[in-house]
Amino acid sequence: MSESPVTLILGATSTIATSVAERLHHAGHRLVLAARSPTDLSEFGVSFGASLTRIEARMPETFDAAVAHTLTTHGRLDHVVNAIGSILLKPAHLTTAAEWDEVSSVHLGSAFHTLRAAAPALMRSRGSAVFFSSAAAHHGLANHEAIAAAKAGIEGLVLSAAATYAPRGVRINAVAPGLVRSRASQKILASESAAKTSEAMHPLGRLGAASEVASLVAWILSPDAGWVTGQCFRIDGGLSSVRAR
Questions:
Q1: Which of 101, 111, 112, 131 minimizes the number of CB atoms within 10 Å of its CB?
Q2: Rounded Cα gap, residues 240 and 138, in angstroms
Q3: Percent of the chain at pLDDT above 70?
Q4: Does residue 148 have a pLDDT over 70?
């Protein structure tokens, strides 16, 4: 059996996830790509020789099934990347209970169920997991209450899980991007004025690229980061920590 690492990417239709998949493919990973509609990944997956499976963020049993599919296909699971997400920009008083339930389930719930389902396999392989937080969990941004709360929860999950599984050699980390040009952010950046405002929020004066986030994720999963766990890496053009002159 090939010793190249096996990586399961959840939410694989997102712009960042596809960039992560491309980078990991070129680094020699065997990929399993999971999405709500795997057929949306067919052409992309075939080009990488990836196996496809279904995931539904609000159905915990599909996380178990995705891990089982990975083990059946490849016999092991070395890394898991949870890129499942959505964008909801509303103040708390205009956010419905149903919207909050969806945001918390899609972000924090899916992260927990990913860890719950994948941990036994990761302990066997001494593998690693990467989750996605957001700059909104570190920097107060108007109308981000639901997203910020869910993402902050993910960071708490990462810290506790890193402590729990470190004795078994499993590394748990997160990345927290600022606003990245992607299919998900198209609506936010629809007008030129909105795009310029968003760019100006970031001290480096521009939005992020999916490839930049993917590069960081690939490094976290690589042997070069073998002594890194319990971290949340901010990749946000300085948004959460720098005030430009």
A1: 101
A2: 6
A3: 94
A4: yes
Q: Which of 36-40, 87-91, 95-99, 200-204 has the highest mean pLDDT?
A: 95-99
What percent helix, strand, coil does the chain show, rounded to 5? 50, 15, 35
Token look-up 């901010």 returns 234
CATH class of 6-180+209-235: alpha beta
Q: Where are the domains of the chain?
A: 6-180+209-235
- Map residue 21 onto helix, strand or coil: helix
Residue 227 has pLDDT above 70, yes or no: yes
Does residue 50 surpass a pLDDT of 90? yes
Q: Which of 25, 116, 118, 36 is nearest to 71 (CA)?
A: 118
Burial readout 58-81 (b: 16 or more C-beta within 10 A, e: otherwise): eebebbebbbebbbeebebbbbbb
- In the numeric block, which tokens belong to residue 74? 């490849």
Q: Is residue 188 exposed (0-12), middle (13-18) or buried (19+ Cβ within 10 Å)?
A: middle
**DSSP structural state of residue 208:** B
With 0-12 CB in 10 A as exposed, 13-18 as middle and 19+ as buried, what is 11?
buried
Q: Please choose, from the candidates 113, 235, 227, the residue with its C-alpha nearest in 3D space to the C-alpha of residue 174.
A: 235
Amino acid at 93: H
pTM for this predicted structure: 0.93
Can you tell me the mean pLDDT for 182-186? 61
